[in-house]
Amino acid sequence: MKQQLNTIAMLGQAYSLLGFKIVDGVVGAGFPQKPSHSAVFAQIRPEGSRLTELARGANITPQAMGELVDELEELEYVVRRPDPTDRRAKLVVLTDKGRACIAAGITTIEGIEHRITETLGAHGHRQLRTLLRKLLDAG
Amino acid sequence: MKQQLNTIAMLGQAYSLLGFKIVDGVVGAGFPQKPSHSAVFAQIRPEGSRLTELARGANITPQAMGELVDELEELEYVVRRPDPTDRRAKLVVLTDKGRACIAAGITTIEGIEHRITETLGAHGHRQLRTLLRKLLDAG
DNA sequence: CGAATATCCTAAGGTAGCCTGAATATCAGG
DNA sequence: CCTGATATTCAGGCTACCTTAGGATATTCG
């Protein structure tokens, strides 16, 4: 579970770890309107994910997740397709527009990371990440 | 305006600066129920502050601030007293309980800061603050 | 087959945290 | 003393985000 994290995510986690509540980031123009929508984008698998699966991952009820998916479907970021392996289920799948949206978000994040490196220097940026890593590991 | 900031506040500001939205911190048991309540505690002056003054500082409408103060008054953290210098206005003043609440919050924050120093070492903690300071100044 | 289980949907409800609009009281200046 | 600005309050509304309740349908298991 100790995956590679970008600096802003580490900042957020550190902040959260220290007893603060944070709202999930809405980074850049590529992302949809509601902060909670990123709960879908962050989780959805390339082959598509089930509603209940997404709900469990986001720790909300399937009904609440259903509403989010409704909205994202309306915005044409995802579509619901029948699951070929289980005819009870439907798969929530990203559309091209959805993938473009994620790509735009990633570009924004990369831009921010770049700006951090510019400000702190490569060495400083590495130092910052190391310190944050230590904080997260200790927490 | 470049006052001394503790590390957690700096983390939060940095995170916010980088395009994320954060909910104000609820640190420790000393603080009241709602995150937004800290908008009052953070601003209120020892002699008391006016409602509109607090509203401007928190960048919300006086009506919204009025509701927050209502709640805090209900919880006996503050009282409304007539302003001796202006009979239109009332002063929102901390009670003993309110001051105790702030003190408890500060104690909690100090505890967290202490834990950070323990984890990173005094040198590491200073380094972290320096790096965050740079990020904030650049933003 | 029939019962239990899984998935999904609709509907209704609730809270937090804001907002606008309008009423009332007071102040400050000519 | 009239006028326009300022301070507060009451009333009503809104959005984001989540819940519980109940029911439809499809699948798996004994």
The CATH homologous superfamily of chain A:
Winged helix-like DNA-binding domain superfamily/Winged helix DNA-binding domain
CATH class of chain A: Mainly Alpha
Oligomer: homodimer
Q: In what order do the strands lie side by side in the largest sheet of chain A?
A: 1-3-2
What is the typical, i.e. mean, pLDDT of chain A? 81
Strand content of chain A: 5-15%
Characterize the biggest β-sheet of chain A. 3 strands, antiparallel
Give the proportion of residues in helices of chain A.
Answer: 55-70%
Overall body shape of chain A: elongated
Gyration radius of chain A, rounded:
17 Å
CATH-derived topology of chain A:
Arc Repressor Mutant, subunit A
**Care to count the β-strands of chain A?**
3
Structural class of chain A: mainly alpha
The SSE order of chain A reads HHEHHEEH
Question: What are the segments of chain A in which pLDDT stays under 50 over at least 5 consecutive residues?
Answer: none
- Per DSSP, the total helix count of chain A is 5
> Largest interface by residue count?
A-B, 30 and 29 residues
